[in-house]
Amino acid sequence: MSNSISNTERAEVIAQALPYIKRYVGKTVVIKYGGSAMINDDLKHQVMKDIVLAWLIGIKIVLIHGGGAEISEMMEKVGKEPQFIDGLRVTDRETVELVQMTLSGKVNKSLVNLIEVTGGKSIGISGVDGRLIEAKPKNEKLGFVGTITGVNTAVINDLLGNGYIPVISTIGCDQSGDIYNINADTAAAHIAGALGAERLIMMTDIAGILRDKNDPSSLIPEISASDAGMLREEGVIDGGMIPKVDCCIEAIRRGVKNVVIMDGRVPHAILMELLTNEGAGTMVTG
Predict the structure, then answer these.
(1) Sheet holding 146-151: strands in order across?
(2) Which end of the chain is more exposed for a tag (fewer CB within 10 A), N or C?
(3) Contact of 33 with 65, CB cutoff 8 Å
């Protein structure tokens, strides 16, 4: 805040957040973290501060992250060229080992560390821990890319119950012990549904659902899942927004009260969404 703002004005801003704090205290909010907000260091620090603040006021935060850029970077370092089919990474056995190492190691632990130094309590886990994400092959052409067959939330509930922020990397496993690369948006929808989350926040690199994809001012602030499905069929929602909107609809179908698609590049977008009347992005409701 600017130094020109008085202490009284600062106090008033905080007081205005009280109704929203009361709404969310003790409730579970799942945040899917990805896009530019994960790559830009300044944004990353800001997002972690928002998460820790929300946690400190009593919101149960579950952070689910991707890491596509980091995986591609690691593949290139070892001489493997990333390949994609319909937006999904072709994942052979060597690649799935790189995915596991990068997501559950480098990316996951760096986020845990950042939350801790920001003042939060966090533990990083993967979808393999406690068989959190059970999966099967999605398509043999994709290799070890998985479709979720089950979600076991016991380990998440244990961490939340002990006051931690779970940070989850989205790899899954099957009964034979094979590891699968899982789309983070899809994982977030399934996990939020299994937890009965109050809200799922999907952080992206766009403002939300636009009526005209070339006009940022055409943002739709709120839409029902059925209307979102109709816009998808009409072609208003297309390209990379299709799987994200499908995940929103899936989360609603699984019992999440509402889902927000927001631009993670906007400073303090999480706090704007949770603690103000304005909100951020597009809210998808049941």
Answers:
(1) 146-151, 133-137, 171-173, 179-181
(2) N
(3) yes
